[in-house]
Amino acid sequence: MKFLTTNFVKCAIKTCDSSIDAFPLQYTECELVQQEQDYNPEFIVHMLERIQWDALISVARDLGNDGLPANKPEGLDAIIEDDQAILKDLHTLLLETHIVNGKMTCKHCNHVYHIKNSIPNFLLPPHLA
Amino acid sequence: MLPTPKFSNLDFDKVYEPAEDTFLLLDCFEGQIQYLNTQFGPGSTPVITEIGTGSGVVTTFVCQHVFPYGIVLSTDINPHACLAFMDTVTENSIVNPTVDTLQMSLTSGIRPNAIDVLIFNPPYVPAEEVPQIPESLQDSKWLDLALSGGEDGMEVTWILLHQLDHILSKKVGIAYILFCARNKPEEVANYMRQQGWIVDVVIHRKAGWEVLSILRFKRNES
What is the pTM for the complete model shown? Predict the structure, then answer.
């Protein structure tokens, strides 16, 4: 599961939907693997529109990365050198960083979900589904 | 005609084997390329989710030919399907910046109003009931979840349709859902139109003894 995906997944339990604590999940005991991917700055620029920045910072912190700017970078341009550096960093973090194994915990209900072999499992036991 | 993705190493005792319904979805998306490009613009990065992705053939086709820059998050309840999906993506050398598979029921673990393009080939076969989720990985019944749809073959599809407004992104969300004639798709379409959706039959085909159609759902903005 790519780091980017953490920006789209939440607790699967219905009653957590109304809580702001159900997203993002908290990531612990994560085994990360870097996997090279073609660098496409245009994609990063477009993709940023879909990103919830605060959630990104929160998950990055869980995984030991405090280096993200506090506010979402706006109007990045792949031709400008300073922007290039930011885009490259985001590329490395969001697309090349994979969580291969780990735990995701809902900060509202404390339910723990597992990531195994890069596949996160959101299936719930019958009494919670 | 665009080529069908390769899928040579899958175990079809555990994962739904691509069949007429799968191929209808491929033809559907081949025909929708222009429409979707107009909706999202070339080079855009919509969030795409196929529910019950199974072998991953449909998602792979969409990655190859429709949205090479999509953020792809496909789901399946069946753990064997999640693994098969990875195999298919690898076998077809998909180079999308992001393609992940998530094990879950429908879209239960994806944040609300995040999905731009939803694809669903549901368990549409009428059956006495929707099967229980097996407890062990070795259980032989995982595949049944891809087929048996309870009353009218619609039990799972109705759960999804009732959540559609909560699932699809607010501005542009579009869903493609496959039906067989026994699901009474005209009645479903009429009901959804009353709920404020624009519903179009985008493709329709007699496949053996089944008549299959794919309906497209989009919010009525006016």
Answer: 0.96
List, in sequence order, every beta strand (DSSP E) within chain A. Answer: 26-34, 97-105, 112-116, 119-121
Residues in B closer than 8 angstroms to A38, CB to CB, are: 95, 97
Q: Which residues pair with B103 in a beta bridge?
A: A121, B76
CA distance B78 to B15: 8
The rounded Cα B165 to chain-centroid distance in angstroms is: 17
- The Cα-based distances of A84 to A36, A38, A71, B95, B149 in angstroms read 17, 15, 17, 22, 50
pLDDT score recorded for residue A87: 95
Q: Is B222's pLDDT higher than 70?
A: no
Q: Between chain A and chain B, how many beta carbons pairs sit less than 8 Å apart?
A: 90
CATH code of domain B20-33+46-219 = 3.40.50.150
Give the B window 82-101 contacts with A, CB below 8 Å.
82-83, 86, 95, 97-98, 100-101
List, in order, residues 6 or more apart from A86 with CB less than 8 Å away.
A69, A73, A76
Closest Cα partner for B215 from B60, B67, B73, B24? B24
Q: What angle do CA B36, B38, B42 make, to 5 degrees?
A: 85
Q: Determine the residue of chain B that is closest to A123 in CA distance.
A: B104
- A29 CA: distance to closest CA in chain B (Å): 19
Establish whether this prediction's ipTM goes over 0.90: yes
**pLDDT grade, residue A82 (50/70/90)?**
confident
State whether residue A5 is helix, strand or coil.
helix
Q: How far is B115 from A65, CA to CA, in rounded Å?
A: 27
Instruction: With beta carbons less than 8 A apart as the criterion, state whether B56 and B165 touch.
Output: no
Structure tokens given for A87 = 């885009």
User: Stretch B106-133: mean pLDDT, rounded?
Assistant: 96
